[in-house]
Amino acid sequence: MNMTGGYKKERYILGIDQGGTKTAAAVMRTDGFIVGRATAKGAYFPSEGVRQALNPIGEAVEEAMRSAGIRREDIVYTVAGIGGIDWPGDDAMIQDALQEYLSIEEIFACNDAVIAFYSGARRSHGAVICAGTGMNGALIDERGRQFVYGDYMEEKAQGGSALARRALRKVFDAELGLCPPTKLTPLFLGQAEVSDVDALLKRYMTESEFRKELRFLMPQILMVAQRGDEAACSLLDDFSQELVAYIEAGFRKMGMNPEKEEVVLAGSVFKGADNPLTARVIKGVQERLRGAEVVQARYEPVVGACIMGLVRLGMEPSEREKGIRESASVLGLLRS
């Protein structure tokens, strides 16, 4: 009870995570307990426009606040991780748009890769590689400076979509005799519902929708590699070394000492206890960036947004870890 005889007012952090597939919002008390969450459709403001991106954010925020039983005036800080904040000035533009649209003053907007860092990190600085359908990464130094890889990552490194296309190329290479026969061949033939590689190649070259569907094969591609298929293993060897090279270059660009840093692996491509790509990235970091610690994301990125809010308010997330983990588990926000 406070000095006036009333009950102490609870304070809340609002986390927002928007990507092309999904928009998520979560409400966290400043003691670390997540008390509300919601999702809406995704958006990508650079191609769809800011107004189209704001609508699902507003929908998710309203539902998250309703489920938490709070009002806007109860929110003391908001962190919004938004896909597409890639260029100088994007963050301020989106922050201003969110403030006006949500009628919330204290908002920090950043690229969604940045909040993914806080979904796994135990420190306030380090690197994150976030690989889902596409891929991005970010670094945060001890002074809070940020660098987002964005379009510096070339197309062949763009997450599950790129990996699937590269796996299909192994099928074509095997057909030509450039690499050994591979179990990837029947996998892709089945996806295309064709009986030979000629027909598979035709579908790939002439049907854009089929090319988009290839990303859904990522779990099976990883499984083929897990079983020791030479072509699939070679693919993951190359991809993991490219990822490690990006991390190494990022540390060098930011003047960060790997011995003091964590590397967070986030996104669906890294999921799974026996994930062969994750194992290769960890090994590569250990060999090339001695002292850096690799950790996997523990929570969904929207929780990372809330945790980043704690950090920016000068609060220590580690002191609230028990509450964060228990409530994230109850609300289905733990990564499997």
Explain how this protein is built:
- The structure is a single chain.
- This protein is of the alpha/beta class and 336 residues long.
- The chain is 46% helix and 18% strand.
- The protein has 13 helices and ten strands.
- A five-stranded mixed β-sheet has the order 3-2-1-4-5, sandwiched between helices.
- A hairpin with a 5-residue loop joins strand 7 and strand 8.
- Helix 2 crosses helix 3, helix 4 crosses helix 12 and helix 5 packs across helix 10.
Oligomer: single chain
- Total strand segments: 10
Helix content: 40-55%
Mean pLDDT: 93
Strand content: 15-25%
Anisotropy-based shape:
globular
Poorly predicted parts = 1-7
Cα distance spanning the termini: 40 Å
Work out the helix count.
13
Ordered list of secondary-structure elements with their pairings:
Elements: E1 12-18, E2 22-29, E3 34-41, H1 45-48, H2 50-68, E4 75-82, H3 90-102, E5 107-110, H4 112-118, E6 126-131, E7 135-140, E8 146-148, H5 159-176, H6 184-192, H7 197-206, H8 208-213, H9 218-226, H10 230-254, E9 262-266, H11 276-288, E10 293-296, H12 301-312, H13 321-330
Parallel strand pairs: 1-4, 4-5, 6-9, 9-10
Antiparallel strand pairs: 1-2, 2-3, 6-7, 7-8
Concise summary:
By secondary structure, the chain is of the alpha/beta class.
